[in-house]
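Request: Mind sharing a record?
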Amino acid sequence: MNDILSKDIILEWGLGSLPPEKQTEVADGIGKMIYQAILVRALDILSEEEQNEFDKLLDENTTTTEDVLVFLKSKIPTFDQLALEERNNLKQDLLIPTAQAA
């Protein structure tokens, strides 16, 4: 994922106490999970024609994560809200307080 997203995740998820290499590793992993969740939700929203366009984009060897996000943002008017929801959903799923888990 990009540096800005990684820095946001490090701050938001309280990873600042980890060594820098571990911060990057964990932030990248979290970023990938958020990205996957966004892709799954987006597929339910895109029209069949947009899904075909999306498939073509994904089939290109030069397509980056940023290219995919720009495409989805251009096709889904509520993309920023969707991305925020997926970030919050993952955070809630992974950072359940231990008192609630018992």
